Amino acid sequence: MATQHSKTAARLMISPAVILLFLWMIVPLSMTLYFSFLRYNLLMPGMESFTGWDNYYYFLTDPAFSAALTNTILLVVGVLLITVVGGVLLALLLDQPFWGQGIVRVLVIAPFFVMPTVSALVWKNMFMNPVNGMFAHIARGLGLPPFDFLSQAPLASIIGIVAWQWLPFATLILLTALQSLDREQMEAAEMDGASALDRFIHITVPHLTRAITVVVLIQTIFLLGVFAEILVTTNGGPGTASTNITYLVYAQSLLNYDVGGGSAGGIVAVVLANIVAIFLMRMIGKNLDA
């Protein structure tokens, strides 16, 4: 049993790491908060002045903000639907015994280790290019005109790219949960005459509920910050058709050189992300306690 002396020693040994992480977080956040109240344009150095809440007002009333917020929600929900449904189906497939099972599992998980910028470039140039892409060649082979995905369906294309990256993660978590399912319970249900669909709905899905909530929580936190895929493929366009909150903050700060407005957007993004995180944590906490 730990004594008071050992507890104090443990706190002292871990405190440098905690202090460093705290400073690593609080210093940039404090500077962003400070800049959000300034009229700070990179094209006019030395002309900074206090502007109060104006940056927040202009950012929140900008028509691009409502479009970016809608795109962010659609992106998160779309990727979650694809990865959860696809992850469950892949987990069920990979849980079956077949020849080469280990190799197939490695190949399924491999996309998760590809850098977002690299995967976006691969999809943009090798698959979705309307001239030399694989989809364009397939369309011509079928006698159809090539479809320019990134121009005509930019947000759906980005959802597909991001879902391809996160599908292995969901599959891995759900496969691990599926392997802990009691086989005797499945066999008993089968002997009682339950069909495969009934066993899936009434036994498999309830067993996977906790794993699905973990997948939703972790992916949502990361999906709110999707940036590289948009920058590499569409640059937020056409117009604001594929602009999310993260890209809007980048455009405001580094493309429009408005550091004050971009900082205000960054604070707004942090607040929205924390609201979503708190909501998800409460929902998942209730689920795990059930």
UniProtKB/TrEMBL annotation:
Keywords in alphabetical order: Cell membrane, Membrane, Transmembrane, Transmembrane helix, Transport
Gene3D superfamilies for the chain: MetI-like (1.10.3720.10)
Membrane topology value: Multi-pass membrane protein
Entries under Pfam families matching the protein: BPD_transp_1 (PF00528)
Any Gene Ontology CC annotation: plasma membrane
Magnesium among keywords: no
Annotated family: Belongs to the binding-protein-dependent transport system permease family.
Protein name per Swiss-Prot or TrEMBL: Sorbitol/mannitol transport inner membrane protein
Organism: Cereibacter sphaeroides (Rhodobacter sphaeroides)
